[in-house]
Amino acid sequence: MAREIESQNGVVSAPPGELNESSPLVTHHGRKLSLLPLIFLIFYDVSGGPIGIEDTVGAAGPLFALVGFLVFPIIWSIPEALITAEMGTMFPQNGGYVVWVTSALGPFWGFQQGWMKWLSGVIDNALYPALFLDYLKSGVPALGGGWPRDVAVIGLTAILTFLNYRGLTIVGWVAVILGILSILPFAVMCLISIPKLRPRRWLVSKKIRKIDWNLYLNTLFWNLNYWDSVSTFTGEVENPKKTLPKALFFALILVVLGYFFPLLSGTGAIPLNQQLWTDGYFSDVAKLIGGAWLSWWVTGAAAAANLGMFMSEMSSDSFQLLGMAERGMLPEILAIRSRYGTPTLGILLSASGVLMISWMSIKEIVAAENFLYCFGMILEFIAFVRLRFIAPNADRPFKIPVGSVGAILMCVLPTVLIVAVLTFSTLKVFIASVVAIVIGLILHPCIEMLRKKRWATFSITSELPDIHVGNR
């Protein structure tokens, strides 16, 4: 075989097991993402609206819930979004955080980052078909369990997977439409609730000893993380060096307001019964505030939000695999794009993972994905700080206005929060997560064996810049 072969799918092939790093590249990316769709893709990567935040009230009371959604963004969301903006514009290419960690710490840790974050994303995505059906089962009781629910999960996953296959720009504009539909009923609920608000209800809290810290912290963490997910498809963004920081800024405002005001409305307008504040309770809150019509509207919006979250998460997961394959970290077949510019095999792998994990309970899913996500974030923080020291003069179109010491201090509070989330994890989640991490440690040498034995083809696309500043 020839050393260099141009592929119709935008990657350059080499004989099985060899790595080609210098051939010309023929790519098919499709249309680029503009600012508005990117804002809503980030919105759905992180949030999707106030559905799923009800457990914070049940776990700790209105006061801690409200304070949590004001303080947590300062401790976690803003630092993560800022780091994503700096690193994403420094490396404006698919793969995102995998590229950052590889650049700072080398390919082994880059692979571990990719494995943990991809698995975390797939676990997270397994929630959304189940949550969608949970919101519909009041009208269609058969969707509450058994084979009708299993068939519905498979069918829904297949439809949403097909939309991802059809193109990232389609997913982006669908996210815009779903986002507007998801936000409107909660905005109406907030307005209607104003005459019914009783500020003293916001001050109710559980005693510190009785707070369910595991549920409280995991719910806050789950609803305010994943700002870095957008980095995995930065290569598909129009002028990412300017568009990405703007999109993160507007999405951050949208997410925080989209949580705080419905929570303020729901806890202040109706008498408190903490036992009722569980997943899906906002539909009942809407009924008590505005009537059955508003309840149905909120239920529909919540269901639509789950569709948006599924599609945005699948986009992030699949483009992450594509980015890793373009860097020669995974077999070339994962870099093959469809005629719509989407990573075909990456989408199928992500969908398969969702179906395999969908049997877990919602709380187990949230705790497991948070655990893995925490380890991935630790690697990101280390990469961010190390690149500030070893590559201080590298081009950073968006740079957080702090020095090297400031970069370290930025990561202190988020790291403390990570330790707290890990500490309150259950033994079952801990064991499952450790097993997943060990699998990642085993997978890397297996991939390397595929390369050395020439059992698979690996390629590096020639248009990608050198990222291994950390290994010089």
Report on the architecture of this protein.
This protein is mostly helical and 472 residues long. Helices cover 65% and strands 2% of the residues. The protein contains 17 helices and 4 strands. It has helices spanning 35-46, 54-60, 62-90, 97-105, 107-125, 127-136, 146-165, 168-193, 213-223, 240-269, 281-290, 292-326, 344-357, 362-390, 404-410, 412-423, 427-452, and strands spanning 5-6, 12-13, 19-20, 458-459. A two-stranded antiparallel sheet has the order 1-2. The chain is globular. The protein starts with a strand and ends in a 13-residue tail after the last strand. Mean pLDDT is 86; it is low at 1-28.
Notable features of this structure?
mainly alpha; two-stranded antiparallel ribbon; 4 strands; 2% strand; disordered N terminus
Major pleated sheet: 2 strands, antiparallel
Approximate shape: globular
Distance between the termini: 33 Å
Tell me the radius of gyration.
Answer: 22 Å
Strand content: under 5%
Detail the topology: elements first, then pairings.
Layout: E1 5-6, E2 12-13, E3 19-20, H1 35-46, H2 54-60, H3 62-90, H4 97-105, H5 107-125, H6 127-136, H7 146-165, H8 168-193, H9 213-223, H10 240-269, H11 281-290, H12 292-326, H13 344-357, H14 362-390, H15 404-410, H16 412-423, H17 427-452, E4 458-459
Parallel strand pairs: 3-4
Antiparallel strand pairs: 1-2
